[in-house]
Structure formats: structure tokens, C-alpha cells
Amino acid sequence: MASIALPLLLFISAASATETVVLLYQNDGNWTNHASTPSAIFVQDALSSLDTAASQCQSYGEVILNKTDLSAFKEQLDYQAWLGNFHGSLWLGDSDPTPYQYNSEYLADNSSSKSNSLAQVLCSNSAPLPTQVDTDYSTYPTMAVESNGTTFTGLRDHIAFRFLGVPYAAAPVGNLRFKYAQPYTGSTAVNATHYGAACLQYGYFDDNSYGLNPWGNSEDCLFLNIYTSTLPGDAANTNALKPVMFWIHGGGQTQGSAADSTFDGASLASRGDVVVVTINYRLNIFGYLSLNDSVIPGNYAMTDKIQGLNWVHEHIAAFGGNPNNITIFGQSAGGGSVIDLISSPKAANLFSGAIIQSGGHGSDALADQQAATIIPLLESLCNETNLTGEARLQCIQSLPAETLLNLTYSEATKWNTVIDGIYALDWPIAQLAKGRPYINTVHYMSGGMPEEAQSLLTTTLSPNDTDFATNLGILVEAGEIKQTQADAVLASGLWVITNGSISNATHGGATSYPDAYNASVYVTTDAIISCYGASYASIGAASFAFESQWVYQHQRGYALSYYDFYDLCTFPVGKPEIPYYRCHSSDLYEVFGTYYIFDQPVRVPEDIYYTNAIQDMWTSFARTANPNVNQKYLTVRGYTTTQAFFEQWSWPSFHAYAPEVAAIQYPQPWTRGLPEQRQCEIIMPFSTLY
What we know:
α12 (about 470-475) packs across α14 and α14 crosses α19. The strands form 5 sheets. Strands 1, 7, 8, 9, 10, 13, 15, 16, 17, 18, 21, 25, 26 and 27 form a 14-stranded mixed sheet that branches. The chain has a 6-stranded mixed sheet with strand order 5-4-6-3-2-14, covered by helices on one side. A 3-stranded mixed sheet has the order 22-24-23. The protein is globular and about 80 Å long. By secondary structure, it is an alpha/beta fold. The N and C termini lie far apart (about 60 Å). It has 3 domains: about 15-125, Mannose-Binding Protein A, Chain A (Roll), CATH 3.10.100; about 150-370 and about 415-420, Alpha/Beta hydrolase fold, catalytic domain (Rossmann fold, 3-Layer(aba) Sandwich), CATH 3.40.50.1820; about 455-685, 3-Layer(aba) Sandwich (Rossmann fold). The longest helix has 27 residues, at about 515-540. β26 (about 660-665) and β27 (about 670) form a beta hairpin. InterPro entries: AB_hydrolase_fold, CarbesteraseB, Carboxylesterase_B_AS, Type-B_Carboxylest/Lipase. GO terms for molecular function: hydrolase activity. This is Carboxylic ester hydrolase. Belongs to the type-B carboxylesterase/lipase family. Its EC number is 3.1.1.-.
């Protein structure tokens, strides 16, 4: 871009958001062009002279833009005008001593909104785009935000501001191990320029063994990350605060991290004009140990999430977020966490929207069941017998963290939220059945993938398996389904194996599957996620539990780069006609738009357009409690592909009398009923909640 010559600072101290600043970036969803698409800093406060404007840009280590640069920001300036944030007068490097008068049909008043003495300014944004997991942020420009006496120093990148590794609770170590989360009372100067450690775990995020977690692991792990395109200044209008989307990662209560680059919130924040928060919470034994007493009661992970929400209520306005408009969302076990929070009285009034992605029914247990699996293992570690109460707690607190972590993968242990009468009153589905007075007030959206189990099963089954009954036996042995379910499936005749002649066709109540592997994937998907999710949605509708309700099923997926067993969860570049499985977690790139961090290709242009539609619907739900995106909003923002998506279709709300499900695909979505319901009638009578 052409700009007036101003000296650049080699070392830039953290700029402070005493003025409102917005990163302008036209996020068209094409992740291959993200780094080359122009970006600018819009200073929303009116400034009195060109020199003042140039100095303001210089304080960011940037330069003032010229008239020739404006065409790249037309949609962004129109959007700011539509919001009432842009008044039409701009200081530009090549303008006269008086402000340049910008024309937009969205300006509130084209005559009175412009001034010959006061104007806003556009500065360059030379900050780079993070394009890899182990991005070195040490050279990124910094930005400081003050909230309630604490200063947070974060970063500016090419498309968003990011504040990383923010402590939201006291470190759960020492005498706080196996205690409810406590408020953070540490330093009032928080360095938020790098991710914090992931919580202790095995698997993909155990240190950096898979190249996914260069920030390490620690018992001191209660950090959150914030992504936003707007930092409000001292004189900002609180009515302009953005919706907040509070992400809870999955991983079976034993794995995962808020710093997983899959959940980098910059693209979602940029595209949807929301504030994204991602949160760590204690995992496995550290988050879920319950010994069925008042001393070691369990549910520490739930208290982490609630404390994180309390932190957001206290501080998020300083980062541009509206504490009165928070949507919690999560996938897999993170979706189960959302279900738990919907039901928890301790989470009342902390959020107004909830999105459950592939969450099933949650993961809850009775306290005595949970304790029975772990007490024998703990007794063998403490060298004393019959320890109870505080003595037992002190013994366990004194053990090395690694010793406790080794219990995580014992076959005898499960790590679940426990029904304790405080944080969890009953099975969530039982509370839901009682209706609105028994859950938190919330607008609700849920759905998943058609073939979740293909990736969840990893290599338990082989695509070359030919015997359906043998596969069911393997699934029983692996604990994926029960023997009674396998027997009922075989006796029903509803799973018809055609050996490739017909693919997933339904007739006479039965469904044809091309092979034994395909049918086995569907059985497991129904047994562990889809049927539970459908039951939760149906009971919620029947009891009128939610303020509004929306249900979907993705018809498109894009496998995570490290989570695609047998290479069956994606189709080759340029060959969308090749059948593939829409697997568990294949919606995550689509929601967060983070393909570019993992160097993933655009298979076909529809990948971009589908991602655009998903991000626009998810953020519309966060903004308005309705995933049907406002058409005027799409026009102003120049989001033409999502406009086309909604031209002849709208997402119907879900009701007991009309249980309509959005089947999401690009270019043409459609509406259907809940999937696999005849199969669920066979499987669910033999299911249990624990």
C-alpha cells in the first residue's frame, strides 16, 4: 500500500487502548489469501489534525494510509458506518490539510456526519498472520488493555488482537489440588503474549510429541485466550460491545487444550465480529476425582469453567465483549460440558446461548459409582490404610503429579461430572425433562456429524472387515456398545449389508449399508452420540425447556490433519464425488476456519463457502439467538456466498410438533427430520447414562 513516509520504530512498547481501535480485514473465508489480504487499524475516536492522526498511527509502529488504499476496505468501512462507528471523515496521508470525505450509503447522515476539523484515521497493519502451530510471537506488536486494576499486554496480528495465556483462576496446586477453582489474585500486570501450558494429560497434547503443543503441560494450567477485532477505548459506547463466544474444548475429559491451534479464534472473531474466548480446565483425575465425601467431592473441572465465565463477566468488556451476551459452545466432551452448565444452578445467569457440537448427553455419574473405581487404586499409593477425610486429601495432595496422572488411563477409572447436589443436581436429561424452571435460561443449538464413530473408533475396526456380526462383537469387547445392543441390532433386520450395491438407502424402516464397516460405524455413532443427542433435543422440545431451539446435521466435513484414520474422513483435492465419512471433529476447521495454520488445501471452492456459512450462522446465533443470518448484515459485509446459501432456504426452529433439522450443505441445504430414529428405537432401550 502507498503511505506517507513516517519513521518506523524498531522496538515498540505496548500501545494502550485509550482510544477505540478496530482491525479492518475483509475475511472472505479463502484461507490461502489471508496473509495477502490487506489489513488496517481503524482508530474510531475523532482526531483534530493530520499530524495528530499520523502520530497516532506511529504509536502503533504503523503509518497513515492514503486514498488509494481505501478501495481494499470498502466493505469494512461500510460495515463500520452501518454500525454507527464510522462518520465519513478520514485523515489520510495524501489528503489536503482538511479531512477526506468518504461516501457510503450506510453513513447515518451524509451531510452532518462529516467535519472539517475532526476525523477518524486508518493506519496500516503490518503485523503478520500466524500460519503454524509453533508461531514465534516475540516479534508481534503488542497492545495493552486495562480492566479493573489489571493491565493485560497482548498481541496484534494480521486479522485480530489476541491475548494469550491469561490466568483466570488461582493455580490449582499444593493445597488447592482437588479444590474448587478460586479467583485469580496474582500480578496486576499480565503478560498475555504467549500461550500457557496445557493441563496434565496423555495423548495428542502430552508435551509436543504430535507437534500440537509446544507450550508444555503443567498442573498450573488455568489459562484462557481471547481473540477480538475491537478494543474499546475510554470513551467507547457500551452498547457497541460484541457477542462473546466461550469455547470449551473436547477430549473425553482426559485430553485437549485451549491453545490447540484448531481453536485459534482469530478467523471466527474476524469473520463474525464476535469476541472468542477459549479456556483450559483441569482434566482426568485432577479435574474429576470424586471420593463421595465433602472433602474430595469432585467437579473441579466444572468449577474451572464457571470461574472462567465469572472472569469473563468481570473483564471481557475491556476486550470489546458484551458480558450480557455470552454463548457457551463446545464439541464432543466440550459439548457435554455445555450440557452440564445448562443444568448447573451454579452457572445461572452466566450465559444466554449454548451450542452443543457432537456432545451426546453429557458425561455424568453417581458419586458412589465414581468413587468405587478409584478408591482401591489410591489406597495402594498412600502407604496407610483407612485414611479418610482431610488426612486422605493431604496424602493425595502430597503425591507427585505424575503418579496421579498415571491413574488416568487405568481401565478401572472414568472421569465424569458427578451428581453432587451442588453443581450437578441430577442427570442433565432428567432435569431437562422437568422443563424450564429446572435448567438455566438459554437459547439452544445442537447437532453433529453423520459418521462420528469412524474417527472415534480409531483402528478398532478395519474397512476390510466383511462380517457385521463379528464387528459388533469387537465393538462389545472394546466397550463401545453393549452386548444387548448388539443382539438387538442383529435381530432387528434394520441394518442391511449390500456389499457395495446400495449406499445408505432407507426402505421399509431398514437402511442399506454398502459394507459391514460402514454399518458398524453407523451403529456406534448412534449408540454413543447421535441417539443421545436426538433424545436430549426431543425432550428439551417436549418440555419447552429452551427459550429457542435449533438442530442441525453437517453434510460436509474436513478431517483434522492428525485425526483421519485410514484417510477416509476427507475427499481428495478436486474430487468431491469420491465418497468419504463425515467424521467426529470434522466440523472444527469449518467452525474456526483454521485450515491455514495446518497448511490444509482448498479441496474445492465449496469448502470456503461452506465454512463461511457455518461461521456466519454460528456467530448469528451468538448475536441474535437465531442462526438465520440477517440479509442486510450479509449485504453490508459483502458476504455474497452466504447470501446465496440463504436465498431459497431458512433454518427452521425445532419443536416437538415439528422436529425439523437443518441438513447443512453447500450450495443447497435442506430440512429433514431427526436422523436414524428407527435405529435409535432399537439401540436406546439398552443404553445407560453411565
